[in-house]
Amino acid sequence: MKICVIGLGFVGLSLASVLGSKGYKIIGIDIDDKKCKKISSGHSPFFEPKLEETLKKGLKKDLGITNNLSLIKDCDYIFVTVGTPQRENGAIDLSMIKNAVTSIGEILKQTKKNPIVLIKSTVIPGTMKDVVLPILEKKSGKKAGKDFGLISNPEFLQESSAIKDTIYPHAVVLGGYQTKFMKNAKKFFSKLHPNTPIIITNHQTAEMIKYANNSFLATKISFINQLSTICQNIPGANIDDIATTIGLDPRIGKQFLNAGPGYGGSCLPKDIKALINFSDNVGINPTLLHAVEKTNENQLEQIIKLIKKTIGKNLGTQISVLGTAFKPDTDDIRDSISVELIKKLLNLKQKSKIIVYDPKAMINTKKIFGNKIKYAKSISDSLNDSKIIILMVDWKEFHKLNNSSFKKSSKVTIIDCRRILANKKLDANYYAIGIGHK
Ligand code: NAD
Asked: Which of 158, 173, 256, 428 is deepest in the core (most CB within 10 A)?
C-alpha cells in the first residue's frame, strides 16, 4: 500500500511523519520546493515538539519528500492537507484546495489505480459535493464511488501536541457515500487507531463536525474570558479556582477554560469567521457566534485600555511583550493575539517603544514587524528598560520571573494575561486577567 500526503504544513507533515515512522510507504508532497528540501534533510520548517524525531524516523524507513505531484499516480490513499485560509470578508478561501484537487484529477485520468482521496483540510459544508467532487470527476473523466473514493476526513490535532494527536486522535470522522472505498478506509483507520471511535457519516455532516468542534472550543474560551472579566470586579476572586472546579463537572470538562487575552491561532478565528459567513449565506443569524467573537475582541480591548491608562501622557515608554506565538510550544504566530496587540500598540497616539521576547517565535515575529519593534535576546534583555510588561503566552520560562527580574527598572506595571506570577509577592503594579483587584 502506498500513501501520499499533499501539503506539508502542521497537519500534513505530522501525518506523513507519523505514518512514515510506523513504516508505511509514504510520499509527502508540497509545492514549496525550499520546504521540501528542508524536510528531506530531516528538519521541520516550523517548531512542533517531537516532530523532527518522528520525521527522521520516517525518512530512515520509507518516507520520501517531493514537490512532484505526478508521483501520486501509484498511490492507494491520497490525503489532502493544504491550507484553507480566510478571505478579507471572513469567507473561506478554497483556492489551494481547488488547485490541489485539479492536479489530482488530472493525474487520476492517467492512472489505472482506484485510489481513495481523503480531504483533511477544514472545508465549509457543501465543499465536497459542490466543489471537490465535480472538479475531480471533470478533470479525471472518472466517477467517484466507482473509479475512486472521496472521503471527508477532518483533522482535530492541536499544534504543540500534533504528533501525539496524530497517533492518538480522539475520533476519526469519515464522511461520504457508503461504498467499497468507505469500507476500505474504515479498515485502514481501525488498524491505524485501534482504540479510536470511527464516525461514518455523509460529507456535509463531516464538514460541519469540524466547525462544530472549533466553534464550541472558541465558545468555551469566550465564556471563561467573560467570567474572568466579571471576576476582575470582585475583589480577591480568582478565575482559575472557578475554572478548575467547573472543569471537574464531567458535563463541562476541564480543557479550554484558561482565561487569557483571547483565542488566536491558525484555526479558531478563521473557522468561526467562516462559519459565521456560511450561516449568513444560508439565512441564519449566528447570534451566539457573534457574541463569542465580540467577547474575544473585548479581551484585547481591555488590555489596551489598561496600557493607555498606564502610559498616560508619557511618550517613549518601553513596553515589553512576553510571548508572540499564539500559544506555548509553537512558533506559529498566525492570528496570534500578541501580534494583534503589537499592531494596536504601534497605532496608539501615545507612541511607545516595543520590545518582544518569545522562546521560539522571534523569527516569525521579525517577518511581520521588521524594524518597527525591538527583539530581545533573552527575557532579562526585554525587561531591562521596560516600564510595562505584558505576559501574553504561558511559556514555562516565564514562570521563573520574580522581583529580581525587574530590579533594574523603577516600579513597573505588569499585566499578566495568564496569571503566571499571581502567587509571587511583586513590588510592581500588578494586574492579572481573571483576578479581582483589591
Ligand atoms: P499550513 O498552511 O501549515 O500548510 C499547508 C501546506 O500546503 C503548505 O506547506 C503549502 O505550501 C502546501 N500547499 C498549498 N497548496 C498546495 C498544492 N497545491 N500542492 C501541494 N502543497 C500545497 O496548513 P495547516 O495548518 O497544516 O492546515 C492545513 C488544513 O488543516 C487547513 O484546512 C486547516 O484549517 C486544517 N487544520 C489545521 C490544524 C492546525 O492546528 N494547524 C488543525 C486541524 C485542522
From this structure: 173
